[in-house]
């Protein structure tokens, strides 16, 4: 189940001024040794709960979740998700038929939730995806659905004919979701308000390889990684990686500078990492070329990032890095009304 947690590492991560409660449902077919259905709950970009079809258990992923919610809460969530699981597995087959597909690896996904800003304003969203591409998304203000492709038009018309589906989403997103969001923020206040500076390393496999600036272990998630050449900002030949969460709730990010040995020799490059009020600068003198000497914490983070990319690629999750999207729930946190047939 370790890989299932990594499934969510690529999700949209919000800034510290916004609190978010998000749920991600993923149903799969054609993938061996992987749960056919997974539900992951996230607060401010951190995993707080998880359910999967293999264990058929919904469990807390943060200590403060376990301490503040009784067993009835977890049991009621399991019962709802068992029903949702079957609906999602059926939906994969339905959408496959619309694309004239009979086999292969396919995914049906939902992302839904709400945001609470410091000024008291709120947002809510619900969006479905198939095989890593948008399918249908909710406009809760007009109670309509937007179809991203011809195969989704059937679903759009079907759900708009039953206006209660969008209405239930709207009620959940504007009320219940915000209520649970506030509760969770209160439960996890000490953890969510912590501030931890990043550990920064310059990594290079050999003298002719690109140099990677790796920042890890920082919290909150807002970090800036830039390169300088001879004291001036340098943004050419730079590959900035995605912001990824670590298992302990902190974050990591990489930025790779792709220049040859001669350019390194003839210029003075430095990596500048800014987090909160702290600035960390690393230069050529700090490059680690023997990966066996890299601190264990960094190795673990880097390996997790690689596994993450593999898993995300398998389930087609990158679509959700482009947009926000969400869906409703029931009397507990994510007792969502996912019973709407595709």
UniProtKB/TrEMBL annotation:
Q: Which residues form the signal peptide?
A: 1-16
UniProt GO cellular component terms: external side of plasma membrane; extracellular space
| Domain Ig-like as annotated: residue spans | 198-289
Keyword Cytoplasm assigned to the entry: answer is no
Keywords, in A-Z order: Glycoprotein, Signal
The organism's superkingdom is given as Eukaryota
Q: Set out the biological process GO terms recorded for this chain's protein.
A: immune response
Task: Spell out the PANTHER family in the cross-references.
Answer: MHC CLASS I ANTIGEN TRANSCRIPT VARIANT 1-RELATED, MHC CLASS I-RELATED
What is this protein identified as? MHC class I antigen
Origin species: Ctenopharyngodon idella (Grass carp)
